């Protein structure tokens, strides 16, 4: 109980450090340091709070200021990159053309930082900026511009159509020390250009939001387009199901604990909600909305519907709304997928204006307005393509205006097409050689995004919104590249697997390849596109489509992935390196910890069938990571194979690594000098190696192999096989799996 009491005391207080004001939530009831130059004074109110039981109330007059004095925040704190953030919560009762001007001054009263907050929202929003990063056109402020922050002034300025006074509520003022990622909303649109874009930031929802042209004209949909809209809607109409009684009870309890009620003026009130940017909180809120919606729709539960509508109004008011910090990073797959679900299931129960408010929330949190960008730089984030495009289509189908829905489906079609544009450098997407990129390299494991693209494009087949031939050709090019790296649509190399080694199958399916064939057929006016249909028949050794199997037993190069591939009959030889630009491996805290040598000139022979048929036991059980097939490596204890850091990617010092094709034959070469990035004790490994691939013969040559620092013996490896039995069954230069006795040989 003592701990709880102490926590409560801390929460309900202003934080002071060496006479500087860091934070206040106004729970102490003191107006010390707060004043206004207007005729009406300041006070406290419990009608609208962000936490606790009090918020500062200001009845503002046009041109008057709310002033916070004697902040006394040292210049060194204001100049810290990571922690020089301020977050001030403001409640606005109704959207308007008005604005608030924020000024931060030094001891002498000189204004050092200025920002504008548009009052184009209803409910709670934050003024959230970093003094060091967010006031200089996206550039860091110079150290010479640091200052002792002494005063904050907030000026109310009326816009066209406004008059009289306006009441605002303020709560949870953090003047310094905020470290969270800023995610400005439309209320910060005038200052968007000043916000620093963090390399590891969440999605940029305001940047996406601003892509919609203000002059956009929505044409009247044609009968053909309206028919196409109904076809697409039939695919993206989300159904509902039964609710688990325990989930419904949890939702009802959560809503009750929010203490939601009404003020005298009819506005919503309740306990303040601070975790509006926390992914777990956001998903929890959506889950409870889903439970209430299911009970209302599936069970006819009137009480659940009442709670759903009340709770939705409350969370919108608290800032889980358009312009809130609810656009989650796309590497958080589970949260990104889960957050929209409850709201989408509840949409049929909402009436206006709440339904539009929820659609705007979904648009915002899914960067919907990206669809309006006409000329994006090729190489868009494939995680976004994989995770969010389904929601974009579902949101478009949910729009109340059929004309608007048709218009947006046209933009989504265009967006899908732009996501197949050939990209350059280390950006995501499809490269000039057909290679697919994510995380700055060709890691086949991540190319499930291409399968997602196919499913979305397939849903538009036969409608006015179908993708064009150029987009189809680019995606077919990428699919061919991916499948040609594999053993007839099955295994692909461990060297191309990224941070999840020993892949058991391609990340795209046979069904998705068939869908792509039929997308092409729809474009050319047939049931299938003949070229890719021939490739499909070759890949799966079938006569599914009425065209001859193509002959793809050739040597292929993909130099954006430092890759050469020889295909013959039932086997595929994959030769993989890396260089100064394209990395050879990716290591995460709990994934691929021993995968350092993954692409050190790897040569893998992949047979049709399972991992075990090729000699790779599932998930690499029992694998000695020193001996990657085809690689040249330094044999180290497993403790030395692990990087010293949580994350590690491998690049090298030299550029030369790639392959040349002579049609059915070809060569692969790699010139290697190990790059010391501090992840390991350096071994200064160097080598040159080549693979000459002729007919069914692979000639492997190595030269100038050296190692330093007495780190271990150097080996060049041909093959390593793992089995859980003494008499494994696998392919060994054969057309069918062989059973024999496992032996150990060192060359």
UniProtKB/TrEMBL annotation:
<dbReference type="InterPro" id="IPR015177">
    <property type="entry name" value="Lyase_catalyt"/>
</dbReference>
<keyword id="KW-0732">Signal</keyword>
<dbReference type="InterPro" id="IPR008929">
    <property type="entry name" value="Chondroitin_lyas"/>
</dbReference>
<feature type="domain" description="Lyase catalytic">
    <location>
        <begin position="303"/>
        <end position="535"/>
    </location>
</feature>
<dbReference type="InterPro" id="IPR011013">
    <property type="entry name" value="Gal_mutarotase_sf_dom"/>
</dbReference>
<comment type="similarity">
    <text>Belongs to the polysaccharide lyase 8 family.</text>
</comment>
<comment type="subunit">
    <text>Monomer.</text>
</comment>
<dbReference type="GO" id="GO:0016837">
    <property type="term" value="F:carbon-oxygen lyase activity, acting on polysaccharides"/>
</dbReference>
<feature type="signal peptide">
    <location>
        <begin position="1"/>
        <end position="19"/>
    </location>
</feature>
<dbReference type="InterPro" id="IPR008979">
    <property type="entry name" value="Galactose-bd-like_sf"/>
</dbReference>
<dbReference type="GO" id="GO:0005975">
    <property type="term" value="P:carbohydrate metabolic process"/>
</dbReference>
<feature type="domain" description="Lyase N-terminal">
    <location>
        <begin position="24"/>
        <end position="184"/>
    </location>
</feature>
<dbReference type="InterPro" id="IPR003159">
    <property type="entry name" value="Lyase_8_central_dom"/>
</dbReference>
<dbReference type="GO" id="GO:0005576">
    <property type="term" value="C:extracellular region"/>
</dbReference>
<dbReference type="Pfam" id="PF09092">
    <property type="entry name" value="Lyase_N"/>
</dbReference>
<dbReference type="Pfam" id="PF02278">
    <property type="entry name" value="Lyase_8"/>
</dbReference>
<dbReference type="GO" id="GO:0030246">
    <property type="term" value="F:carbohydrate binding"/>
</dbReference>
<dbReference type="InterPro" id="IPR015176">
    <property type="entry name" value="Lyase_N"/>
</dbReference>
<feature type="domain" description="Polysaccharide lyase family 8 central">
    <location>
        <begin position="565"/>
        <end position="720"/>
    </location>
</feature>
<dbReference type="InterPro" id="IPR014718">
    <property type="entry name" value="GH-type_carb-bd"/>
</dbReference>
<keyword id="KW-0106">Calcium</keyword>
<protein>
    <recommendedName>
        <fullName>Lyase</fullName>
    </recommendedName>
</protein>
<dbReference type="Pfam" id="PF09093">
    <property type="entry name" value="Lyase_catalyt"/>
</dbReference>
<dbReference type="InterPro" id="IPR039174">
    <property type="entry name" value="Chondroitin_ABC_lyase"/>
</dbReference>
<dbReference type="GO" id="GO:0006027">
    <property type="term" value="P:glycosaminoglycan catabolic process"/>
</dbReference>
